[in-house]
Each structure stands twice: as C-alpha cells, then as structure tokens.
Amino acid sequence: MIKAVMVMNTQGKPRLAKFYEYLPVEKQQELIRRVFAVLCGRAENVSNFIEAESIFGPDSRLVYKHFATLYFVFVFDSSENELAVLDLIQVFVETLDKCFKNVCELDIVFNYSKIHTILDEIIFGGQVLETSSAEVMKAVEEISKLEAASNAITLIPKSASGWRSR
Amino acid sequence: MGSQGGFYQSKEFLDLVKSIGEARSKAEEDRIVLNEIETLKRRISEPDIPKRKMKEYIIRLVYVEMLGHDASFGYIHAVKMTHDDSLLVKRTGYLAVTLFLNEDHDLIILIVNTIQKDLKSDNFLVVCAALNAVSKLINEETIPAVLPQVVELLAHPKEAVRKKAIMALHRFYQKSPSSVSHLVSNFRKRLCDNDPGVMGATLCPLFDLITRDVNSYKDLVISFVSILKQVVERRVPKAYDYHQMPAPFIQIKLLKILALLGSGDKQSSAKMYTVVGDIFRKCDSSSNIGNAILYECICCVSSIYPNPKLLESAADVISRFLKSDSHNLKYMGVDALGRLIKISPEIAEQHQLAVIDCLEDPDDTLKRKTFELLYKMTKSTNVEVIVDRMIDYMISINDNHYKTEIASRCVELAEQFAPSNRWFIQTMNKVFEHAGDLVNIKVAHNLMRLIAEGFGEDDDTADSQLRSSAVESYLCILGEPKLPSVFLQVICWVLGEYGTTDGKFSASYIIGKLCDVAEAYSNDETVKAYAVTALMKIHTFEIAAGRKVDMLPECQSLMEELLASHSTDLQQRAYELQAVIGLDAHAVACIMPSDASCEDIEVDKGLSFLNGYIQESIEKGAQPYIPESERSGMLNISNFRSQDHHEASSHGLRFEAYELPKPIVQSKIPPASLASTELVPVPEKMYPRESYQTTVPSVSSDAGPSELKLRLDGVQMKWGRPTFSPATSTSNSTISQKTVNGITQVDGASTANSRTRETYDSRKPQVEISPEKKKLAASLFGGSSKTEKRAATGHKISKSSSHMVEKSHVPKSSMEVASEKTPPVQQPLDLLDLGEPTVTSTVPSVDPFKQLEGLVDTTQVASAVNHGLTAAAKSPDIMALYSETPADGDLLSGVLNPSMTNMPGGTTTRQSMPRSKGPNPKDSLEKDALVRQMGVTPASQNPNLFKDLLG
C-alpha cells in the first residue's frame, strides 16, 4: 500500500502531506525534513528511486519526481511497483495540470483543499483507486459543481496564477 | 486580485502564504505561524461565523498543522463541520478530521454517528466523503458500527461508491481481519463486477488475502488469467488506457497476484504461461508504464514454476533494461536480475559489464541495488572482490543505517566464503575499524570464537599462525586513535589469550599496551573490563610458566584506580587480579589454564567441595542449613531437632540441598579416560594440558545427529568446525549432491558466458572497455579465460584453495559427467569453485553457535562467547557417552578440593543436583547459561573463595 504522499518545494517547505497511517505531527515533520535532506542531495539524471528504509522503516520504498520547483514524493511498500508509482505521480500531476492549466507551486498552495480532493480520488486509504486523469477530473468537477450549488458560491478557477503574474 | 483567492481563499490566507514564503528564517516563519494561530483561535470561537468563512479557517488550520504547528484547538470545530448539511462544509469537515485525527482519538466518537447517517445519504458525494473518513478514522472497535452500511454500499448503483466501499472493507480487513472474515466472499463476488474499475479495486484486497493464504484462492487462477487476457487483448473500455497501454495498473496487480499463486505450483503456473508470454510479446517497451508491466512480468516469471521460454524473454527484457540510458530502468534491471539469477544463475554473466557500470554509477540508489545483487551472487571465487568493494563503499558513506546493513553483509559473506584465515581476519578488522559500533556485538563474539577455536583444519600450526597474525595486526591497529568499543573488546580479549603465546612479544609489552587501552578509553567500562581480564590472563600465564612477573608501574596505578572504581564489576575484576597474582604457579594454572577458552566448565551448583567442611562442622555441633523454603516450619523443626538431631534428619525432613553425595569426582582425569571420548578428535597439540582435554565437547557437538536440523541454505559455511564423525556421512551426501548440481550450473554458466560475451562485445565494438573494468568483471563473474590466471593466482592465495585446485583434477572424470561440454581450458577456473566439494564434501560445516542460539536466548549466547564456546552437549548421544566418564567436567572443584575424594559418603549431606548431565540438551544448556551467569570467564570465579580453600 501507499504509505504517504508528500509535495514539497525545492526549499524543503511542505506543500502537501498526507500519511495513510496515522503519525503524530512532529513525526510527520521529521520525516518530511529527512526526505528533503535526501532529495536535495541528489543529482540530476539519476534514478527516481531512493532506498527509504532508514527513514520509513523496513519494507518501504520511495519514488519522487521533480517538477520545476516541486518534489512529488510517494512512499509505499513492496506491494507496489516502482515504475508504476512513477506513472501514478505522472497521473497526479497531469490531473493537477488539467485542473489548473499549467500547474505551478502557488496553485497547490492556494487550492489546498482541492488538491486533497484530487488526491483522494486517486488514492483511497493507501490503495490506488483511479489511474485515469480524465476520470479523476470528472469526479472532481462533479464535486466542485455540487459544492458550488450547495453554497451558491461562484467558482473562480485559476485565479492564483493571475494574482501571481501581476 | 488577492481577494479572489483561488478555491475560495481570502486575502488573509494569501497574505499568510506569501509572508511565510518570504520568511527568511525558520524563527521568522514560526513567529508568523504562531500569530496566525492566535488569530484563528480568536476568530474560530466567535459565534455565528458564516459557513464559508468557517471553511476557510479550517483550511488555514490544516495548513498550519502541515507546517508542523499544533492546531488541536480547532479539532472540535472540524468535527462540528462534519455535522453540517451543506456538502461543501461537510466535505471540508471530513477532510480536516481525516488529516487531524487518528483512529483512537477521543473525538472520533462524535463522528461515528454522522458517518453512519452519511453512509445512507442519497447524495453519492456525501457517501464518498463518509467512506473516505471511514477508511481513516474507524478502528477495530467502531468497525461493527459502520460495517452493515458499508456492505450495503457494495451494491450501490454508482461504481465510484462501490469502488470505495470495497476499499473501505479492505481497510477493515487490514485493521482487524477477524471483523470482516465472514465477508471475504464479497471480494470474490465483486471480482465479477461489470465495471472494470470496481474489479480493479477488488484486486487490492484479494492481493492481501492471497499473500496471507495462497491455497484457498488457487481456484481463482483461471479467473485471474482470463481477466488478464481480456485486458491484454484490449477488451476493457478505452477509458482505461493509459499511454496506449490497456489498463496497465490492473495488469500489474494481476501479475503480482499470479506470481503469488503460481509460486511453487507447477499446475497453476502452467495456466499462466500463455498470457504472460503474450504480455512479453505485446508490451510496448518505449513507455515507462510498459516497462513497469514488463518488470512485473519478470517478477512473475521468476516466482512461478520456471518455464524456459519465459525465462528467455525475461532475460531479454533485463538486458534491454540494463543497456538503457535511464537510471530507473537500470535500477529495475538490476533488481530483476537479482530475482532471476536465483533460477538461472548463468544470465548474470552476460551482463557483467552493465552491472559494473551500475556499481560505478554516481547514483547511490543504483549502487546500493547493485550491491544487493552482488551480495546475492557471491561465491567463493569472487568473494574477495565483492567484499572489498562493499567495504570501500561502506567507508565512503555516512548513512548509519545502510552502513550497519552493509557491514553485516560483509561479515556474513566473509564467514561463508572466506578463502583464507588471514583474509578473514583482515576483512573483519576493516569492518570493525570503520563500522565498529554499528556492528552487532555477536559478530565480535563470533570473531573471538573463531580465533580461539581455530578453523577446523587438521593442522594446528595454521591456527597458531592465525592467532599470532591476529595479535600482530591488533598491536598495529592499537596505534590508531579512536577505535570502536566493540573492536577494542575483541583486541583486548585476543591479546589476553594469545598475546604472549608465540613468544614474539614479551608479557610486559602486551601489558603495557593493555594498560594504554584502559587508560585511553577510560570512559568505556566494558573495554576496561576486557582489558583488566586480559591483564589477569597475561599475568597468570607468566606465573604458570614459572616466570617471575613484576607489576609494571602503569599497571599498578591502573589497578589502584580500579580498586576504587565506582563500577563494582571493574572493582571485582581488579581484586581478582590482585588475588590471583598472589597465588603459586600450580593454583594459577588451575584458575587460568592457558588456551582453554574453548573448553567446557562445569559449576558445581551443589558446592559439593564444601561437603567435608560441613561435615566437620556438623560433627562439631553446628546446625545443618535449612533452605529458605522450608524455614516456615522452623519452630517445629527446631523442637524436633532438640530431641534428637540425627533422628530428625532420618525422619523425612529431607533438605534438598544435602542429598546423598554421588560417587566422588576424580581430581585428575586419567589420560585413559580419553579413550571414551574418541568422538572428540581434538588435535593434541592444540591443548597442551592433557588434563583438560576431555572437556572439549564443542567439537563433538557438530557431529551429532542434531546437525540435521541445521539450516545449511545450500551453501557451505567455510567457517566453523568440520565434523570427523562418520555418522554424518549420510547427511553429507545430500549436500555434496547439491554442490554437484551447482557444478553443472556454474559450468553451464561459464560456457554461456564465453559465448554471450563474444556477442555482447561484437555488438558494441566501438565501446572501449577499460582493461581494469574487464578485470573486475572477470573477478566478479569468473569470466573469460583471459582473466582466469588472475583469479587463480591473485585471489586464491590460501594454501587450502590451491590444494583444492590440485585435487580437483583428480575427479575430473566425474566432473565431466556433470558438465559435458565444458571446454577443458576453462576447467581450472571453475574447478576452483567446484573442486571444493570433492575435498570438503565431508565438511558440512556447521556453526555450532547457531545451534546454541536456537536453544538459549540471545543474551546468554552473548555472554557465552566471552569464554569461547563451551557449547556443551547438544546431541543426546554424545551426552550419554559423556556422562559416563567419571570426570563429568567437574574439574575445577575436583582439582581444588582433592580431600573430597576421601570424604565419607555422608548420610546427612547429599548433593542436590542430579550430577549427570541429562540427555536433554536444553537442560545442559540452561546449566551452561547458569555457569556463565555466575562468572564472566571460566577462571574468574571468586578468587577469595579459592584463597580460603587453598589456605
């Protein structure tokens, strides 16, 4: 199963952290720090895999992907396949990209709850639930629509980057 | 602009994020966040907050907590939000509680009711949100509260809900398998769901179930195979395609499941061959996901019953992976190779250069994976190269976790395959020097034991050579600053035991060194204790040899310091040393026999050597000892006794401690008794003192039938005692059989290698391969004939191995039967490896220590090693033999109290312990353990006691 999903920027600031087994906040912070310490020491053009047993205990693997200013990190055990998880990260990022059109770090910060919604559609309780970004998009849009309807709040997508480009 | 703030975020939130982003230090960030927490604390408890605002506050709280600050004051508000009717608020509430709370949190009880209600909601999004919370927040106790609803949802019209319901059920199974055990059939049912997504979700719990119990799911093999077939043939909706691959994640899961089901099951495996072969053919290897599937296929192929055709395809894919430029693929290739060489070891040979490239890659992950592969393919021909590489790498890294792991691997490989004693000692020294305190203390004890016991070769000079080389190397290493504690312990022990044995170094030199150690590492009490005991040994050996020893001034001052030490252990050792030095040569030799660390000691638990003294006292009118357990009836007893003391003792007042003494122990074992222990073929030179020879059961422990229980793992351990007993020959035959199989394999490998290497080279003629690399490749893989010489001479320096080479020519004919088409040129090299069984086939060497570990718990083992291996009596047969000898190992007491032999067979005093070591190995082991608890080293019994006895 997948143990944790983390998104952090290249300065080591967490942007999203979701642990599928409960961990106290301090422990989460420590793990994020240690993962970052390993990540920032890695050169370009090396593999996307890291031996994570010293950080996350036995039977844990870590796959990460570096996009612009962000690291996407998935931690999981031997019941998943490293290359497949790498594609799962791809699915996640593609979905974000479709959602926000050219996703950037700020979109993730400002749309914190939406990111969680997207992730919940992909991974459920540590298991991969959906791997088609189109399907995920459909579900997320449906949720947004209903949420908007139930609150009569207009949905303003993609304003964060507008704010940034100012 | 800021006010528009994304997904309903306000300007305030934007400002917060911005200011955190601009914070220049962690302290500044903390200050900003603490400010924010104060604001939120105030605002959130205001009455009548609009829902939208409330949602924002909670999201801000979640954000704050992600940054590592405490947001617990807001948990209750998040819980309240889950009760709200509005979907937006409710979902936010659920999101927050799943992130904030764990399943055992007190607030969960407030949510369970809401979850129950929401699971029945008409709105499927509410249901989904609730299911999401269920997967995170429901624990074993609350499962029954929501279980019926979740099961109902398995038939929900929306596939998204069905999917999540299955996942939730899976989660329940993970948390408490018993709570849903009656519902397992639901997973099977859902496997036939119309929606491929739901079916795919079902594979997750089924994978878990099958992992735990393969046999109950063998019937599903056909279903899984047909599903996989349909997927591969693109009969699932296009929507499930990913990068032009049909439902790749489902394929991967299915392959994983098939690997489990087909493992060791020829019948089931046969059903899978076609579809796996199809995937190999159809899979697109240009995309990442395609390679993921191919990798999974290799895993499957290497797990199920082997099929030559599939193995060939797998080998092809592996070579493609390894030749790829992508580090990810190389990584997967190395991993896959590690799986496949278990089945067909010969494929490693074709990839030697690629593997070496990976080894030299700057990518740490890839390097480690490659070391893992090398670890798996180590054999006696390449162990030196591999272990050297591992140690170099170990020295270069800082990661303690991995350092520990690689150190233990080095030790393991060295113990299994070491070509020579000297190499072994040197390797161990390196490991200790660089990873000392990370190494398990057992490894150190093991090393001491090996040095003490020798290596089971017939020739004693090799053992003593080894010891003196160890002593020399340690004296040399001692010059270096800051050695790890564990290593120092080994050094002290070896110097104490063998420092002066070969006469090369004077006692005072060794003593000086030991004093230096004790002084330099004065904070480490364990090291100091080892040093003091070593000092004691050196002194006693000198005294026993009749040489006069004066205590060196530094030793004197060390003793003075230790006599006043805060550590009672150190203090006691110092007093012991003082006491022992005052004794005469004979007594000292009894207390500290030289080179007797491997010998067995028996502790006379009944203190029978005191019998004479007691008898005398009783005759003088002293009262006999009454065990504490019987003292409650003291009053009666004393009344009783006042009438007639002697009558009382015959009156059923049996005090256990004083049972009838058994036939008296002989003080000296007549050499003739050796004959009865002919099963113990100890080379005499090794134990110069005859009187101790009978007490060496550690050798015989190997020979017994108990050996059959041992884990041999198909590899011969080079270290440890050989067995000379003919009784083991039956078990040997199977082992040598195995190695004969090994021969054919290895031979086949080398032929394959020479062939494929050519093709490999010819395919890439433009690539210049450095000769160095080639050499390395050859030494690792035992490659082409060019490098043969080097392998034969450079790495096989040890006498024993060259001996093997010679010998291996003798049974050539039988070899040729085993390996028909091996070109003769190659034979010598392979024979290095192969010759072994012919020479050592009677040596299914066994680590007697491992046996011990099984029986005694680890702490006892650890202490046991301190005095070398005593390891008495594991095989009942030998014990039976052994207990017949009159000596019964009770040497110490016998020697010390010869008067006892004349002691009248008293009626009042009796030995409480059953004297003969029972046939039960456990008993004797427990006894041994007790012995060890009572004194740290055989000789360090309470010296004061001896003093009294000896006058």
Automatic annotation (TrEMBL), chain A:
Which PROSITE patterns does the record associate with it? Answer: CLAT_ADAPTOR_S
Location within or outside the cell: Cytoplasmic vesicle membrane; Golgi apparatus
Its placement in the membrane is given as: Peripheral membrane protein
- Can the keyword Iron-sulfur be found in this entry's annotation? no
One BP term from GO = intracellular protein transport
- The record places domain AP complex mu/sigma subunit at 1-146
Record keywords, A-Z: Cytoplasmic vesicle, Golgi apparatus, Membrane, Protein transport, Transport
Indicate the principal place this protein occupies in or around the cell. membrane
Quick one: a GO cellular component term? Answer: Golgi apparatus
Has the keyword Hydrolase been applied to this entry? no
According to its UniProt record, which protein family does this protein belong to?
A: Belongs to the adaptor complexes small subunit family.
Official protein name in the record? AP complex subunit sigma
Organism, by scientific name, is Durio zibethinus (Durian)
* Taxon lineage: Eukaryota, Viridiplantae, Streptophyta, Embryophyta, Tracheophyta
TrEMBL record, chain B:
Its predominant location is membrane
Which InterPro entries does the UniProt record give? Adaptor_Complx_Large_Subunit, AP4_complex_esu, ARM-like, ARM-type_fold, Clathrin/coatomer_adapt-like_N
Kindly give the Gene3D superfamilies that the UniProt entry links to this protein.
Leucine-rich Repeat Variant
- Transport listed as a keyword: yes
Under Pfam families, the record lists: Adaptin_N (PF01602)
Query: Could you mention a single GO BP entry for this protein?
Result: vesicle-mediated transport
Annotated keywords: Golgi apparatus, Membrane, Protein transport, Transport
List the subcellular locations: Endomembrane system
Which regions are flagged for Polar residues bias?
725-754, 900-914
Kindly give the PANTHER family that the UniProt entry links to this protein: ADAPTIN, ALPHA/GAMMA/EPSILON (PTHR22780)
What interactions and quaternary structure are annotated? Adaptor protein complex 4 (AP-4) is a heterotetramer composed of two large adaptins, a medium adaptin and a small adaptin.
Which protein are we looking at? Answer: AP-4 complex subunit epsilon
**Which gene does this sequence derive from?**
LOC111289325
